[in-house]
Amino acid sequence: MSNLLLYVKALLKDYKRENGFLRLYNGLTFGLDKGDFLAVTGASGWGKSTLVNIILGVEKPSRGTILHDGKDVTRLPFMKRFGKSRVAAVFQRSTSLPQLTVGQNLNLALSLVGIKKTERKERIDEALSFFGLENSSSSFPENLSAGQKRRIDLARALAVRSDFLVLDEPVSDLDTSTTNLLLPLLKGMNRDHGTTVLMTTAIPRVASIAKHQVHLTTPMVSVSNVNAHKAEA
Question: Within this chain, do residues 1 and 81 fall inside the same structural domain, yes or no?
């Protein structure tokens, strides 16, 4: 049985501009094995966040194929793309609900994936402890720092026991001391809990914690008289 979880093949993404097209990826191809930790690197504006959206099914590629567990999911939306696999995404902005406490946010996530009520507290306590948030269960997200909010999102993924974690610029708004705290925790999720991780970053030091790296190439700009492939509807 193949150990390949995700395979991105010959990916292109074109955006129409006033004077032509902006092309991202230019045929990007890479694979991600189960249990692996992959960093996708590249400068700002080179399509890291767009790649995350394409992998998750939020956006469609102009050309190329996305395979999950050997199945072509390129045109499927997120809810149908990963089947029963537990997939979590941590974006640059926190997705915690501000009207709920930290504990309530994690409890909601667990209820949505069908975890029994009797099991939720143990999972929540374990996840909060792993990320050093034991004393924050009753706090509201708006009263916490940017680094703590990021750890809440990660704790939620850990509590759900995600098979696949997608991180978009996980330290983009964090100071150095918080980044130094967060990076070992990300490695721990992969090493100790077996979570497959795909992370985008523009920072070489952050990318270095991954087992493998994929570097995005400079976007291509084509003027109106150069043929480019329009994005499919």
Answer: yes
37 burial (CB, 10 Å; 0-12 / 13-18 / 19+) is: buried
The four Cα atoms 157, 160, 163, 169 give a dihedral, to 10 degrees, of -10
Domain annotation covers residue 191: yes
In the beta sheet, which residues pair with residue 75? none
User: CA-CA distances (angstroms) from residue 100 to 90, 108, 144, 159?
Assistant: 18, 9, 13, 17
| Structure tokens belonging to residue 79 | 């809810």
Say if residue 68 is in the same domain as residue 180: yes
Q: Is residue 185 part of a domain?
A: yes
Query: Are residues 16 and 114 both part of a single domain?
Result: no
Per-residue pLDDT of the chain (233 residues; tens, 9 = 90+): 479 999 999 999 999 887 788 999 999 999 999 999 999 999 998 999 999 999 999 999 999 999 999 999 999 888 788 876 788 999 888 889 999 999 999 999 999 889 999 999 999 999 999 999 999 999 999 999 988 998 999 999 989 988 999 999 999 888 898 899 899 999 999 999 999 999 999 999 999 999 999 999 999 887 554 454 444 43
Using DSSP's 3-state secondary structure scheme, residue 61 falls into coil
Could you give the CA distance from residue 118 to residue 138 in angstroms, rounded to a whole number?
Answer: 19
Rounded-to-integer distance, Cα 146 and Cα 90, Å:
13
In a domain, 148, yes or no: yes
Total domain count, the chain: 2
**In contact, 156 and 45? CB cutoff 8 Å:** no
Q: Which domain holds residue 122?
A: 98-161
